[in-house]
Protein: Myosin-IIIb-like
Amino acid sequence: MEILLRDDLAALSDLDEKSLLEALSQRFSQNHIYTYIGDILVSVNPFKYLPLYEKEVAEQYKCHEKSSLPPHIFAVADKAYQSMLGRLGTGSRNQCIVISGESGAGKTESTKLLLRHIMDLCKANSALEQQILQVNPLLEAFGNSQTVMNDNSSRFGKYIQLRFLKSSVKGAKINEYLLEKSRVVHQDEGEQNFHIFYYMLAGISQEDKEMYGLLETSQYRYLNGGCGTEEMVRQWTTKYSEVCNAMDMVGFEEREKVDMMTVLAGILSLGNIVFEPSESDALRVAESAQGWLKASAGQFGVKEEELLRSLICTMSVTRGESICRFHNQQQAEDARDSIAKVVYGRIFGWIVTKINVLLAPNVDVGVDLKEIGILDIFGFENFTVNRYEQLCINLANEQLQYFFNHHIFLMEQKEYTEEGITWEAITFKDNKPILDLFLSKPIGIFSLLDEQSAFPQATDRDFVDKLNSKFKGSPHFEIARSRHPVFTVVHYAGKVQYNGNGFLEKNRDTIPGSIRDLFINSVTPLLSVLFTATISRTGTFMPRKAKLLQNSEDNFNSTRKQSVGAKFRHSLAVLMEKMFSANPHFVRCIKPNSKKQPDQVDERIMMDQLRYNGLLETIRIRKDGFSWRPSFEEFAQRYRILLFKPDLPLNKESCMEILNRTELRDWKCGTSRLFFKYWHQEELARSLERLDRAALVIQKNYRAVSCRRKYLIRLAELRAQRQREQEEAIQRQLEEERKRHLDMEQENKMPIHRPVPLPRKKKPQPKPHCPLVGSLNPPQPTPVPRPRSKLFQATSHDDDQNVKGDSPSLLPALGEDEVTGKTFTRRCNTIRWFTETQARKVVVNGEFPCWFHGVITRRQAEDLMTDKPIGCFLIRLGQSRKGYTLTYRSKERCRHYMIEMQSNGKYVIVGEDRAHASLPDLVDYHTCNGIKPFMEFLTIPCGQKCEQEPDYEELRTLADKGQHAWEDEVIPTEAHRPSEAKWNVDRGAFENGHNAWDHNTRTLPRLYPSIRLAMKEIQQHFQDRQDQGHFSCTSHSTTEP
Structure:
């Protein structure tokens, strides 16, 4: 049992398929879901919660030694982060983490855990870390859905690039691959549409449902799965709240959110439009669906007649003459579904692009940023019916398997041969021929698909017949005898039969020009942006600027000619290029059973995964091979410090000298590089750590001696100076005494005269007032600040760490003696920012809340908290930045939490994962939910230091003074001068209060009245149908004898 529970399978002596399966099964039964194969992590999905990811566990996996802790996903994140910083002997370079496995093996959860731990490792006390963490739940809602294999299956692939400057994250970028748009209009039995539709319908309020034009889930044809159980609806409601908060955290504007939800509602309404024949050649919308046509037109912001025309006919221009071709029933339904798919696909692309813009690194152009990439891509799929999407998904998994084989087997064994290392070759399942079957030109599956897609009259049967004729002799292709257009590909993970129906249409993915023109002219700005954008060669959504719209038709046509398959192949090529240029880390996810049940192992399913993943061969090569192979120059450059020789030549002899000083064994030397086992890096890193610690001790003692020497020299100088000053004082005293004696002797020798009366003094007159008399007074000495007690120690959550509490630039009075020009201007700019943009959000019922203290210093806030109970708090305006600070009285001291303003106007406490619309909302939320990481609750608001003159009196006075007050005190630029309308809004906010402001500024859909009328018509139709059904039942019962 002890052998089977070993953490590293590469350390096992006897290993075959049976012992490998038994080892993983035994570990799984003991809840050890992670296992190492050398430097590769194997993860088995437990399908249940395990206490492996708490904060205490995460702290252990920070700068840890691999052998000191059990295998964990956090260890992979820590190794990638330390390698990116160059702390593990490889030098600072880009890293990538490749997560692979079947659908349902736990790849998405592993991605979230990796992101969370990397953000913990690079904690820089800013809101950016939380923004990056909120990207995953947002993309999951719009890109994941329930399938028969997985309740949270990724229906797209993503590559997350985290950008770092030294140890701090500076930005992120998301690359998305092949969203399964067909799921919007069709789902197989047991599957669902994308999560966002169910979240939205369950979590949205009844008032917002009326605003967007939404009904219950069961009313929509595009939504499979019904209303769900009560427990599921509660989960959807919670998820919807999380999605809305994620959009607020990342930085989406309120108008953008409303437009997006309205368009999603329009997609659902569009799916309920049904057609019926008419007396003319054109189809018409059924009477029962007239309301849905009006609703979708209002939700899309277009005219009802134009939307109907784009559904039932196609307009073309021949020799300057417009020709209208009416659709049949199937063509009209295809046009309807095509609109739904393209609109949803472009919304998803816009979300990804918006995230990339908001999370782009804010650094200079020339700054070199390092990168950690995390690949979370759709797993290998083999359903009962496999379509075009499964073909692309499985191609992506073939590429990942080839990357794994190339890095682990091909490249490594090739170097053994070139360097003359004695090695017994390990055979593995090479999937390069399968990739050639898909990607070779001009005869490959995708090349033939593009060729057939170029012919308008070609059919799916023609495409499959061409495949059968070209690949009938290939060992990786099998001809299926069926009346349906099907074919079989022998993948690395097994045989998959594909149904060719719809391949050509999905590969073309054409959008009729009338539909594009219709949405470009929509009154909903978001739809106009979606359809004026272009799609790059890799399928990336690219919004266009206004000045480029004149050439939009040409660009649209040029991008339309490129097929979906061509874009996907190009995006995979770009992805592989990024991964080959980085240092990879592998996580192989395993699914223990297909029923998604905890504590159950299906040996057949697990064995199939172990075989096609090549884990047995991987164990052999990690056990006998050399995974780290640095060149002589790289090794000597990195480890020459072990010899304490600064001018060591970077050659083979130096490397041998370094290795002789260490206790490493089992390494080998080639002709141009060294070959090490996977554990050698950690041992060398420990040697460097010992030197680092020794260097710190040397530096500490040297600095101590140096400072002591300087101190003694300075002390001697001060003593000598004091001695000189004392001697000079004694000399001056003697001189004065001698002079006084001489004066007395001189007076005694003078003759005595009668005293002469002095003239009478005049009555003193009052002195005239001088405006500068104050400035002639000698300057008062600067008061010495009192020492800070431990009660008010600074923490990582404190703001203004470098600002002294008693600095005169932060005192509330605006006196000339207390503030200088620069700080005065900054202070006035902060107050102006508050009165122009913030006052109406803080005011409640016409007054500032008692917890708001305006512009007070950190020291003043701490003084107010001195005798207050635990849980007391106040919020003050920042002095040197546009933001706020929450001061909280904890058990032992005061804490200061920074409150940052998002680009969309939301408020976020740094380190928290929730955004708030206003400061009162923030306070209300944290009275019931603790502030991380100490989980402190806001209980008692701290009152003002003087009720007659509160701390915020200055802000209220300035807000009431209006624009002219600023003209007298600080002359603002034209761009920053508030308008009269703005001041009127501010005055109204002060008078009417916070609630009135929220109501008046609520964002509504553009055609809200049209949507309301359409929904009333739909509801009336439902009511009429119910009444008719009830009437017919009643009539039937009365006719019975």
